[in-house]
Amino acid sequence: MPLKVLSVASEAVPLVKTGGLADVAGALPAAVAPHDVEITTLLPGYPAVQKALGKGKLVHKWASLLGQPARLLSGSIGKHKLLMLDCPAYFAREGGPYGDAGGQDWADNWQRFAAFGRAAADIASGKAKGHSFDLVHAHDWQAAMTLAYLKLASDTPDLPAVMTIHNMAFQGHFDAKVFPRLGLPSSAWSMDGVENYGGVGFLKAGMQMADIITTVSPSYAAEIRQPEFGMGLEGLVTTRGNRVRGILNGIDSTVWNPAEDSEIPAQYSVRTLARRKINKRAVEEAFGLERSDGPLFTAISRLTWQKGSDVLLEVLDHLVGVGGRLALLGSGDKAIEADLHGAAARHPGRIGVHIGYDETLSHRLQAGADAILVPSRFEPCGLTQLYGLAYGCVPVVARTGGLADTVIDANPAALCAGVATGVQFDGVHYHALRAAIDRVMALYQQPKQWRRVQQNGMKADFSWDASGRAYAELYRELTERTA
Fold it and tell me: In what order do the strands lie in the sheet with 394-398?
């Protein structure tokens, strides 16, 4: 019999995505399946999920789920089992999963995702007919209350539970006045429960109740013990000790396959490095850049402080001054967007900017640009640098979190040993990023060394094979411990 896991997530590819959480939740079922683990994913009933699932099969009903009627529907997406919480009052809305079309958070997010957690705990506890589970795995603050309800207000508090933190910056912290409406016992209002700095902390509650906490890279698991990265929860992380572990994300090699990429016309596939020149010409044309054999940088990112977009802006004049060009794809802070357009106007033909997100364009940038800039101040794992490695687009990354774990710096020793895969730099500030760009420019002038760095990255294995095995081993460790 396979080990049965309920994965609780607020998004998952290919149905709904705002970030890396969706990639992980979508990839996990296939990643652990070879290890005799069967994952069923529970998602909120957003319009996109409703459309994909269709009518589904009615599994359970709630007359009142934190004040609203709800249904549980089952179905599948491809080979993977799916459960959907059908609660129109909470989830059948236009806009994003967490906010309206204008980018404002929904005022009732606490209620929406507390209800989601309450439903997940009921399902994990066996209240949904025909569905039983050996373990529950909650992702990020939106699913974290699953563990609070499971451990504090269910008939199966001993069911093993995993809490994965995809980004500590998003914690789901709400006013204390919502606590009486959560339906938890009064004892839950404590430091050992859901109370957090005088309010209700969803992520904190999940971390408190989990048997094991995982992050999406080993370095990030260590970093969140420090105030700079723990963001107020570093004390709890430290207290949990060896129950906090890092498992590096993988990438879906069926989607991000340089030799057979469905997003790239066949003539542009990156079967060999020589084919990248064709893609480079295509990127230059798409972004209105001068045709040149000099280095072409790209950045594919949310334009935020976390991603170091402000520092990237500061260094653009230098990047152009030393002979580089930039094709940028991203969106976020409106002031940063405006400043990027200003930089493109100052340097026509040298800087091209596309505001928004375009999946096809992101694939073509990885296949055509020479180097990808990832100056994140913190990065739990990061995926764009992994895509860059796979496609021969050399990552230039801050030495933090998953970036540090996945890129081997092209220092003299690594170059001599023939193992370098990219360029790392310490500290996200103008001088550090400028120096990293200068190193890229110098390395690019040594074609044999540059080609070796590209080839090393393309040979690296960042598929979900190793990550899937690690999660399966963790699940079995927990279920055997409680058997």
Answer: 351-355, 325-332, 296-303, 371-374, 394-398, 423-425
Q: Determine which of 23-37, 260-274, 296-310 has the lowest per-residue pLDDT on average.
A: 260-274
Give helix then strand counts, H and E, for the chain.
Answer: 19, 18
Using CA atoms, how far apart are residues 156 and 152, in angstroms rounded to an integer?
A: 9
Alpha carbons 42 and 46: distance in angstroms, whole number: 12
pLDDT of 180-189, one tens digit each? Answer: 999 999 999 9
Q: Is the peptide bond before 185 cis (omega within 30 degrees of 0)?
A: no
Q: Tell me the β-bridge partners of 201.
A: 173
CA angle 179, 185, 187 (to 5 degrees): 90
In the predicted structure, residue 483 carries a pLDDT above the cut 80: no
DSSP 204-224: HHHHHH-SEEEESSHHHHHHT
Chain centroid to CA 170: 12
Residue from 141, 125, 130 nearest 21 by CA: 141
Structure tokens at 218: 């080993």
> Exposed, middle or buried, 230 (CB in 10 Å: 0-12/13-18/19+)?
middle
Write down the pTM of the prediction: 0.91
